[in-house]
Amino acid sequence: MFADRAKIIIKSGKGGNGHVSFRREKYVPNGGPDGGDGGKGGDVIFVVDKGLNTLTDYRHRRKFAAEPGDEGSKKKMHGKNGADLILKVPEGTIIKDAETGRVIADMSGDNQKVTVLRGGRGGKGNVHYATPTMQAPKYAQPGGEAVEIEVLLELKVIADVGLVGFPNVGKSTFLSRVTNAQPKIANYHFTTLQPNLGVVDLDEGFGFVIADIPGLIEGASEGVGLGHEFLRHIERTKVMVHMVDAAGTEGRDPVADIKAINKELEAYNPELLKKPQVIAANKIDAIYGEENEIIEKLRDEFKDDGIEVYPISAVSGKGLKELLYCVKNLLSTLPQGATVYESEFDPSVKVSSEEPCIVRQESDDVYVVEGQRVERMLGYTNIESEKGFLFFQKFMKDQGILEELKNLGIQDGDTVRVCDFEFDYYE
């Protein structure tokens, strides 16, 4: 089965912790701090691979993670940076946040390489915290946290022209005749189980990419048949070619078929009907003469919509040149370049922005401070030491926590609980 959707979990690398150590040299009994910085965590980077055309690689594996950075070490040695994770995808892949559906990146156009998640920064070693009044700091900065999110990968093929029509009207035969594509061709429904792309080369170096979009039947926009799996591939196309069976070999009504498909396109995305349309009345090799009542009916029905009808034979090649030049002329009036979806959100900013500290009054004389920032700060501060406790107090002041406690009415002697630690408050 053609894989054009996959849901995976990606995780950047955690930054390495800064190191706490002190010089130990002969005749230097009280050496200064020399703890090195931690290494940066690896990024998660998506790269377009022109050789890929499906997302099969992501259908059988769910989790992907970059390497964490190493901790710093003594003698001011920097920890090793974590290796980046490179994920290769076909051109046209859209990366979305699985939770909200917002676009993170569209791997199209100039977006051939995109960093989706940034690794955590390396923590600073204790050498950075030495001051004239604190010459032996016993704490270092922890590495930045890793970022983990679930993303939806969705492939929307990049083609100038979308070839649509009910099964068995000759789309695959047409594509093989006018392009370099080699789709499977057989006389039964749903022969085509994936979008087939081919390049049409015309005179004067003009060419365009055409895609055979399979599975469009009534109810496609609601997931009937295979339609829901392939409707997304029409979104990037600029022109749509409706192919119908002008010979009536399938016993279908071509006018009703075109209206049914347009109804499904409108239900999926009303903007699709704003694209220019052309009708290719195929299989004229199976009718007597140049035209018949089916072709006349098509012209009468759609002339007010400005949709031209071209009788063709994908088997003999009759009428193909006229149809292709009509498509060329339509494309020349439209903006060049593939449709690229704008990024709507940066997951690194969303996830790495820690929640603010919460300060609340639990009882008359007990106040509680909660939050990721203060928890992380306590994780790397030795508050048992006098200098460590001074560092903790400075943090509480810089974060505005002391001011919030005062606003809540804290008094000297009241208790402040932070994680598993309790302190008596005094100004």
From TrEMBL:
Residues 15-40 are annotated as: Disordered. It is an enzyme of class 3 (hydrolase). The keyword Magnesium applies. Gene3D superfamilies: GTP-binding protein OBG, C-terminal domain, GTP1/OBG domain, P-loop containing nucleotide triphosphate hydrolases. InterPro entries: G_OBG (IPR031167), GTP-bd (IPR006073), GTP-bd_Obg/CgtA (IPR014100), GTP-bd_prot_GTP1/OBG_C_sf (IPR036346), GTP1-OBG_CS (IPR006074), GTP1_OBG_dom (IPR006169), GTP1_OBG_dom_sf (IPR036726), OBG_GTPase (IPR045086). GO terms for biological process: ribosome biogenesis. SUPFAM superfamilies: Obg GTP-binding protein C-terminal domain, Obg GTP-binding protein N-terminal domain, P-loop containing nucleoside triphosphate hydrolases. GTP binds at residues 165-172, 190-194, 212-215, 282-285, 313-315. One of its GO terms (cellular component) is cytoplasm. Its cofactor is Mg(2+). Pfam families: DUF1967 (PF09269), GTP1_OBG (PF01018), MMR_HSR1 (PF01926). CDD domains: Obg (cd01898). It is found in: Cytoplasm. Mg(2+) binds at residues 172, 192. Its main location: cytoplasm. PROSITE patterns: G_OBG (PS51710), GTP1_OBG (PS00905), OBG (PS51883), OCT (PS51881). GO terms for molecular function: GTP binding; GTPase activity; magnesium ion binding. Its EC number is 3.6.5.-. Residues 349-427 form the OCT domain. An essential GTPase which binds GTP, GDP and possibly (p)ppGpp with moderate affinity, with high nucleotide exchange rates and a fairly low GTP hydrolysis rate. Plays a role in control of the cell cycle, stress response, ribosome biogenesis and in those bacteria that undergo differentiation, in morphogenesis control. Monomer. This is GTPase Obg. It comes from Lachnobacterium bovis DSM 14045. The lineage of its organism: Bacteria, Bacillati, Bacillota, Clostridia, Lachnospirales.
